[in-house]
Amino acid sequence: MNTTxxxxxxxxxxxxxxxxxxxxxxxxxxxxxxxxxxxxDMRLLxxxxxxxxxxxxxxxxxxYAGLVSVGQQAFVGFGGYCLFAxxxxxxxxxxxxxxxxxxxxxxxxxxxxxxxxxxRGAYFAIGTWVxxxxxxxxxxxxxxxxxxxxxxLPVSIVRSIADSRAMREATTYWMALGMVxxxxxxxxxxxxxxxxxxxxxxRDNELASQSxxxxxxxxxxxxxxxxxxxxxxVGALIFLQKLRISPDAAFSVNDWTAFVIFIVVIGGIGxxxxxxxxxxxxxxxxxxxxxxGAVYLMILGLVAIVIMLRAPKGIWGFVRERTGxxxxxxxxxxxxxxxxxxxxxxxxxxxxxxxxx
Amino acid sequence: xxxxxxxxQGILLGGLYALFAAGLSLIFGVxxxxxxxxxxxxVLAAFLGLTVTTALGINPLLxxxxxxxxxxLIGYALQRLVLNRTLGDDILPPLLVxxxxxVIIQNGLLEIYSADPQKMSAGAIETASVGLPGGxxxxxxxxxxxxxAVVIIGAxxxxxxxxxxxxxxxxxxxxxxxxxxxxxxxxxxxxxxxALSLVVVAVAGIFLGVRTSFDPAAGPGRxxxxxxxxxxxxxxxxxxTLAGGIILGVSxxxxxxxxxxxQLLAGHIAFLVILAVRxxxxxxxxxx
Lengths: 357, 288
Prior knowledge:
The complex is a heterodimer of chains A (357) and B (288).
Chain A: E1 7-10, H1 14-31, H2 33-36, H3 39-64, H4 73-89, H5 94-116, H6 121-141, E2 151-152, H7 155-161, H8 165-192, H9 194-204, H10 206-211, H11 216-242, E3 244-245, H12 247-250, H13 253-267, H14 273-289, H15 294-310, H16 314-323, E4 333-338, E5 346-348
Antiparallel strand pairs in A: 1-4, 2-3, 4-5
Helix pairs in contact in A: 3-8, 3-11, 3-13, 3-14, 4-5, 4-6, 4-11, 5-11, 8-9, 8-11, 13-14, 13-16, 14-16
Chain B: H1 2-31, H2 38-56, H3 64-81, H4 92-113, E1 129-132, E2 136-139, H5 140-162, H6 164-174, H7 176-181, H8 186-211, H9 219-233, H10 238-258, H11 263-277
Antiparallel strand pairs in B: 1-2
């Protein structure tokens, strides 16, 4: 056997295979929720899915591409307003309006990115916030969509989703579930692709990856636009569930950015598992502490600060450091094949340090 | 004449924006830290001023004597206890920690003072004005605020470039390790810089509270104005920041003159135009 054959790169591990199987079972159970869950539970689950999607997208942006944005509410609100504009003025069905809102989000993200990519680091963060403010103030000027006080989705459009209320609720639930699956799948595919390797390299060391020939501006630009498109689609779906939109709700920094950042930081930034775990913890906390109102938000802020100072990789980073566990098959591991004559070829995992996580 | 008036009022307003920005600019210059909670600290100072004013029954402008040292102490403690631990090559920790701080301050103020807008009254001086030729009137209070802003920025400039503190700031900013070798305690230097930043924030907060009404959610807006003034003026240049504040104030007032709904939008658009045409600001001094 030649020497090059002794090592192979694998991505699937037993843990990630089990995780994939469990995920499929959970997914099927969730897809059947309209038959076993109550209306309030379904609303809560839909909201959870949409937050999970937003958190995964913010994590892709900040955790992988190093673009720390505090202005993603710009795209959530933009997507929401697109849904209202496309269905009310262009006569699109709500289902069709969601991907079209994503497309519009991508188109608007191009000039935005060209402009704010001139700002670096923390100033980039505040620049994204300015953009969101411009969007909010701009939306308040559109009198056809209710100006500053906002508008509701006309009943005829709501009816066009499905005839019965139960069917409408099931449909929007499935759309939310579908959205988080699509977002997670796209993030996985992106990170496993050539671009994803480049992004991971940028995350780990920008200077070194540049010297290896990665065009950092283009890689970041690509992620920014893709994230904007998906965030706008999620935003459209959020306001399809709310059925009412106003500039302050659509471009709320607390709802669409602060919570999302806390979710990612608590769960573990720069990992796919982090936003998923973070969302579940966030909703558990919210359901138990929401009565506290402002104090609840202070607790959330405090938890995020403590995690950032004590365990900056979040809960999942903490787990992974101790167990080496990967639930998504993203990490490339070099595995040595030991061909002992006549014996079975045994794969020795982790014979070497994982090369890229 | 309305237009001339709008521009003059905008210039005076720009002084206040420059005060919002000066503290932000200072700590960025010293330790490359961008404090997302900056606007909320301004609002915190305004509320502290309100409490001091009502408790002691004094003029809000006098309450600066108490609020400024308190804010300075808060700044020093905050930097030594929390923010120093976040500094490093990674920009994420300081950003997210100050973001968490911003949420804590906002909701803390909401819990204590409720969401009702508040305002501090400075008495007769609020309505006093001097007449200018052409029927224009210049408010005494905005004028005092503008002059104070110019004096504070001049003083910061002097501290930064002419004093022993300033030497320590600049040395630590240039190279933290070598500054340490030369006997400077970088944690202490950063603490002092944040203290100084929050003393300026105290003045800005009191002025804000006297000039307009404020509520616990007003912070992010002030942060954005300060940030825009810094970027328009150019990073690390305090006089540039003053110019940036004035440009922002004038744009907002011109926007409001055209259509009241365009006031804030016009300021943001002026910022974006300058970012598009001169990405490093009008008078840049250091690299971001």
